[in-house]
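Dear Dr. H.,

I hope your travels went smoothly. While you were away I took the liberty of generating a structure for the chain from your last submission, since the lab meeting agenda had it listed for discussion. I wanted you to have the full record in hand beforehand rather than looking at slides cold. The sequence, exactly as received, is reproduced here:
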Amino acid sequence: MDMFCGCFAPQKQSRQIAAADNQSASSEIVKKTPSVKMNLDTGSTFGIIRDVPSLYNITRCGPELETHTKIVDVPSPFKSDLLVDDELEPSRYLSIKFEGIHDSHYIGINEIVFKDASGNPIDYTNIEVDGNEVDHDSTQPAFPPNGWWAVVGGDHSLVFDFGEVTHVSQIYFYCANSASTPKKMEISDSKSFLSDTSNDYSTEYYFQTAGEPLTDPTSVVFADNKSCEQVIESLNQEKPSNKFASFTSSDGVCHYVFYEKGTRTSAYNYYFGSEPDKAIQLAKNTVVQDGVEIPKVELRAMKLSELQAVRAIIISKCIEDKWISSYDKRKLRPEEVNLYDLNQSLILPLTERRNCAFKELFTTGDSLPTYYVSHWWGEPVLDFIRCCEYHAERHGFSPDEAQYWVCAYANRQHDLGADLGDDPSKSSFNKTMALARGVLLVCDMNLVVASRIWVDFELYRTVAMQSGLDITMHANGSPHLIAASGLPNETPYQKNKREQNFPFALLCKKMLKVELHKGDSSMPIDKVRILNTMIEHKPLDSDEVLQRMKEKNLEDPRYQQDLEKYAISDNAIKAEIACKAISVALSTEGQDSNDFHGFDLLKIIASDELRKTITFNDIVSLDAVDDDVLVTLVKLTENKSIETFELNAKGCINVTNAALERLEISDTLSNLSLNLGYAKNITNDALIKFISSKLPESLETLDLEVSGYKTPEGNYLPNRYSTFLEEFANVIPHHLTTLKLNSTLDDEDGGLEGLLQLARSLPSSTVSLDLTFEQWDNFKSDMIIEIAKALPSTLQNFRICFYNGDHIEDNDMEMLASEISNKVNLKSFTLYTRSHGGYGYYKMRDIKSLEEILNFSA
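The corresponding predicted structure, in token form, is as follows:
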């Protein structure tokens, strides 16, 4: 069946021009590549570029209106901006369906705000509630709410009208009450929810990209002498995982993309992107004479907009100019073009005259890399670009802000030796990685990338440099992303849910078995140099190391030493992947951190001798996280190389007092972040015992959240009393520089004494103090003055935030300002308070700077 091809076998690809992972310093092989002449009569660098969407009348909307739905599992409580335009299209209407409640008999939502791409609120009208039209008589609007929207039962729906087609980028949801937070939301870009879920192919669902415009595919004979009906029948019998597939007519002139019903938007984005006009214009308007010279190879990053122009060129020229495979000379379809093919058909011919890099054909000049991209040349270029687009979108980068350093476009292909050099540790790759904010690993759908020694070497360098590693892959018709850290408009819980869709089974199968010394390279000298670099052997061109790897003589002590050093790098790479998989392992039915697709993630992480930081910041609100899991994760600090440990188990209600009793935290740890917020089953007494006996004296920074669980009545339980603060004051680490604490305070007298003891016990090394009290009912206005008095004079940064209790009156603010002015080393001050609301409304203080508080004493 003629559908999307997989990547070529790696052993065959090794015969291709340039390295499969990156490139060899040898430029001799380039001379064997035939030059493909381009039509430059137009003066455009890339010749005639067809506006394919306009030429073939291709729009994002197909023969019928598609409804797209984003399904959101909601943690409790929930207060965050939620990105929706990653799945939803602009629409006049937006529907939200709520299902289930966490621990109450009613749903309670404080606020919903629709926002555009700039974060500005969008006006709306709530026109339907639970399927009933709002008439302000029998059915009242739920939003905007009068205080908050509370409704009995777990299943409800709302429909909103924006008056015209509107691009909703994100939605702010605020559910203050943990118990009454809905469990699930379905958000649709339609007035009604999707009911027809059939996903068949038919002759209606297609677009044409080549051939005589508006040629009906039913009149075309396709490859293998198939009719259009036979093509559709074959697609419905064995549906492509991508949910769309392309076919070329038997004469090679016409090209069509057929897609499943309801997936036109995905197919459109894959071939054209969200703004094809800009990409096409950039490709058309790039003129031969306007190219620039960028001497430093590390500054030749491609803007995402330039990568999108490359896609427009492929879509325009591949069928029209009859591009052929650099491997087997067969005719290519756009989605089959890989970097070997692009290098042959586009990059080498266009850069030969100037001996320049492909990046230097554009006019943007020096481009500092946002991300260094590690990848395999055999991956389809359209997959690669779609992955970069999705990566930029999720990070909030515009096409001109996101700059990706890609070897094929950055290196001068006719003079590779000048850019790469002989030492892998000093190559252009290494220089670029040092400049970039992180590394993006783009995986092909067969994970051939894991077998490339250049890629494995880059991953090792990434881990050793403690750079952030993002991983992306195009699979099942969509790009997927594992992010090194939190993304804009995404909570840790949503990050976990999104990453569950990543093909982890394949990733683990390949990456958790990686052995760098067995990696492939197109040029043997590349492998020799990398292997020698890893064992710090000179000269780098000595092939003795390769001979030892081939002979595998276990009695040779040098071979044993080599393997030990390579194992260190292998373990570091595998541990990085294992850390990224932990939260998904804990939230996937039938999987566990000790057996995730057949791999013991915890054992892999523990084997990493180089790791200094372990971060688990996205295991929030997971039922699978219980006492045993928490204890096992913290046990990883036994590795004496670990300096920083971060664990966010907020909302994991199955963690109990027993976990605190069993926790063993390494006494060599320097930095600890432990979030046990909204813990139903951790008492104040257990907290006291934990603080008195478990906190390492070695700590320099501590971030601790121990707030209780918010009940349907609005109280936080179990109660937190100042006795745990008093105990903390007794055992506070002597070299602590930073303390961040989030809790509640339920003492009838306000708990001031515990706070004062804590403030007075801070060592002189402490420069930053950050206190948040989710509930402090018995706070009195003058308490803030006493707290300020108790602060150490060495403190440089102070932030305090609390809810409920009395409002701080102006005279107390003046006295507070006076005390703060005495703290001569203080550089920043933040105060946020919201009163109990006993006045019929909330009173607040929101002081954001030192200057602002000092103005009260003026």
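Two observations you may find useful: Residues 789 and 819 are 6 Å apart (CA to CA). The two ends are 80 Å apart (CA to CA).

With kind regards,
E. W.
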